[in-house]
Amino acid sequence: MTPLVRYVLVRFLLIIPTVLVLTTLVFFLMRVIGDPITAAFGGRLDAAELSRRIHAAGYDRGIVAQYADYLGRVARGDFGTTLTDHQPISAILRTYGTATLELVAYSLVVALVLSPVLGILAARLRDRGVDAGLRVFAILGYAAPVFFVGLLLKLVFAIRLGWLPVNGRLTTAGEIELRRLGPGSGIYLLDAIRAGSGSLAADVLRHAVLPAVALGLLSTGIFLRLFRTGLIGTLGSDYVLAGRSRGVSELRLTTRHALRPALVPIITVMGLQIASLLSGAVLTETTFEWKGLGLQLTQYLQARDYVAVQGIVMALAVIVAVVNFLVDVVAALIDPRIRY
After folding, report:
1. In this structure, what are the phi and psi dihedrals at residue 23, rounded to the nearest 5 degrees?
2. DSSP string of 106-152, one letter each residue
3. How confident is the model over 269-299, as pLDDT tens digits?
4. Which of 96, 122, 152, 170 lies deepest, with the highest CB count within 10 Å?
């Protein structure tokens, strides 16, 4: 077995205990508030009806029995049914999960486009005014609350200048056109491209700009600092100095020789950033009324529907675990030292 295959296999097997620990934490933290039926309907139902529903849902059994039953259902892909609107949580994940993944993908594009350009600029102009300004921008990027950044962007670009939509994923006309096309992937941009509608695709992108930038700045600040630090280190390495002495251009040294080693810490940290983006999506979707899992999670929290909250949080945790595995594999392919 090669070192790469062994590394990938070990990382894949580690998903199981990771998901098990996350499942356990989510389950018991949700039980701190008591049984979900009482939390959702306490004070609105009489005692007899409340007891009947608790018994029907099995929440009057021992906590260990409930936990074992919950693990069995999760293993089968059954995350339960919401208490307030009686929808299977798996259906909610299919309906709204694609919207959240689309938003996270847009924000990653923003981060991965801005951070290399700004990181190279900061590294090449180290300790100058531009570098200092970019470092301040990076700190503000990951320190500023995402909902505050979102509100500022809405105020300036949507309300004051009127360049971009205030909220939503599409205009009403766009939603009607998309529904007329029939069932799609749930990722609006792909559905618009598949339909061959340039105007619909443009509508999707216009609505995505502000939430993607608001959420993308969260990762841009971190990636920028990592790019800057990595490039400063690699630009001072022996092989770059040797290339410079042989007359290799600075552009080639930076983009061909120094940039690839600087990408490794970015890729390594990207798994953690996916988790940050998914958590930031809750506030971003609420700010821009983006109909994804984050907005649904907020609404179920307000309704005190902790069965829905538990299922959505659990699904997001599984996504983060799988993404971290994929990131580790990509990092191992780029840097062979990681495999050993």
Report:
1. -60, -45
2. HHHHHHHHHHHHHHHHHHHTTTSHHHHHHHHHHHHHHHS-HHHHHHH
3. 776 777 778 778 888 888 898 888 888 888 8
4. 122
